[in-house]
Amino acid sequence: MRILAAIGVLAILACAAAAAFFYGGFYNVAASEPHNGFIAWSLEHIRDASIAQHAGEAPGGKFDDPALVKKGAHEFVEEGCVDCHGGPGIEPEKFAKGMRPEPPDLDQSGDLSPAEVHWIVVHGIKMTGMPAFGGHTDAGEQRALVAFVKNIKSFPPAEFKAIKQRMAQSEGGEAGQAAGETGAH
Ligand code: HEC
After folding, report:
1. Measured from the CA of 133, which atom of ligand 1 is nearest?
2. pLDDT band at 10 (very low <50, low <70, confident <90, very high)
């Protein structure tokens, strides 16, 4: 009986401690501070297990076709992946350094299978800032993004920089045109 009572008291204390932790504002959510070791470890393991569990089968076909990889490089710039992750020869935008977790350099992501990369791109990763792209990209664009991520290490930096520059120019052209149109009214 005493033992049961002691277990009861301990359970109540544990709940009170958990409530104090959850509602007391003790955990610092500031992105300017790194996660505490235990929380970082837990989040990382929950994420890896979740991705491995959900990834399922990759869409079929090969991912090393140069034309597909090149299409993926365009998508990578157009979708803004390069702003957070950087790319061959290109640094991420400054704001990415202030994110927690900081968006990783994708040429270090070699151990993710194509199925895992595909799942991450389509669904995103909650509470990390990694967006879900499934809602506004089609299957072909998603395949191309997977191909580019899997081959990012060997993609020539000069070619990637040229793609980014061309796309920035054509965006500038559209913006300029829009400004011109407004000016005419
Ligand atoms: C707003 C910033 C942002 C954008 C835009 C973004 N990502 Fe991410 N991405 C992240 C962050 C942050 C993580 C790290 C998540 C984590 O630690 O679990 C991440 C993780 C990933 C990972 C897993 C890497 C690994 O080694 O675990 C892949 C793959 C990835 N992103 C691909 C992409 C692709 C492809 C695009 C564009 C279609 C993209 N990301 C756009 C922020 C971004």
Report:
1. 38
2. very high
